[in-house]
Structure formats: structure tokens, C-alpha cells
From TrEMBL:
This is Acyl-CoA thioesterase. GO terms for molecular function: hydrolase activity. Gene3D superfamilies: Hotdog Thioesterase (3.10.129.10). CDD domains: 4HBT. It holds the Pfam family 4HBT_2. Its EC number is 3.1.2.-. Keywords: Hydrolase. The lineage of its organism: Bacteria, Bacillati, Actinomycetota, Actinomycetes, Mycobacteriales. The keyword Repeat does not apply. It comes from Nocardia suismassiliense.
């Protein structure tokens, strides 16, 4: 399964008084990963966001397995879990990279569901996921989830 990934080194500003990473940063890293995906794979969607497209996060979760501290190296991997006409769900894996051995250790995993909306101000309505974003996401679909044939969800026949 192909995943989109970003690298990150934890900074002091991301830790709490105890010295471990404050939980909210995992959610920030989800957003950063999603944003960098748009910059690299669907930059035209950013133009639509500057006009009237809105990507509302309607659900976000994270499960923690180990603590992180300042200056630990991470890889955040994002995959596509679900793609409907108007919503996208991503899965995230947070992996600590051991500099000595080069091995990865899963320290957390999360999910995020996003709804595509259009409108101005407080008046918004659901809208279809932009076609360029659908095409960009196809290679990142998790193959083991039922109903995840994004070719069908994108309105094309599965061959």
C-alpha cells in the first residue's frame, strides 16, 4: 500500500512541562500532512480554497502507544481510507525513526474525516470532492477496506 509521508523533528515548543509531546500536536501534524499533500499533488485545489471551497474537518481521532520528546525524528504517513462524493477519510501512522538502527516504531495512529463544502461566510453547502483531488488520492487508497474502489467512487467503471 502506498502512503504519502512527511518527516518531522519534534521541537521544544511541541512538548509540555513534563517533556513529552502535547497531544494536540498529533492533530496539527495530521493537518500539515494533508496540506503538504495538496501542495505537492493537487495544487489547483488550493486555488479553489482561495475562492469558495472549504475543507471542514468533521471528525478527528488519535490513539497513542508511546511518548515522544524533543528532537525525536518522526515520519507521518497518510493513506486514504474512504472517498465518497463529498467526503474523504484519511488514516495516519506516526512512526518514530531510531537514528542508530534506522528502524521505525509506531507511536500513534489517527484518522481524520473531511467534508467538502462551498459557499461564502456562514452559508455553505456540501459539494463534490474536486476531480483533481480524487485522481491525486487514488494511489493512496487502502486496498483492504470494503467499498474502497475509488475508481467506482469517482464515477468511473472499475475494469
Amino acid at each position: 500500500m502506498r502512503s504519502y509521508e512527511i518527516s518531522h523533528i519534534v521541537g521544544f515548543e511541541e512538548t509540555n512541562l513534563v517533556g513529552n509531546v502535547y497531544f494536540v500536536n498529533y492533530f496539527r501534524w495530521q493537518g500539515r500532512c494533508r496540506e503538504m499533500f495538496l501542495v505537492e499533488h493537487a495544487p489547483d485545489v488550493l486555488d479553489e480554497i482561495n475562492r469558495d471551497l472549504k475543507l471542514f474537518t468533521i471528525k478527528c481521532e488519535c490513539e497513542y502507544f508511546a511518548e515522544l520528546t524533543a528532537f525525536q525524528r518522526l515520519t507521518i504517513r497518510m493513506t486514504l481510507v474512504d472517498l465518497t462524493q463529498t467526503q474523504i477519510e484519511f488514516a495516519f501512522a506516526y512512526l518514530e525513526i531510531d537514528d542508530r538502527t534506522g528502524t521505525e516504531h509506531l507511536v500513534a495512529r489517527g484518522r481524520q474525516r473531511v467534508a467538502c463544502m462551498r459557499g461564502n461566510g456562514t452559508r455553505v453547502e456540501p459539494t463534490r470532492v474536486p476531480e483533481s483531488l480524487r485522481r491525486a488520492l487514488e494511489p493512496y487508497a487502502e486496498p483492504d477496506h470494503p467499498g474502497n474502489d475509488v475508481r467506482v467512487l469517482a464515477g468511473r467503471r472499475a475494469d
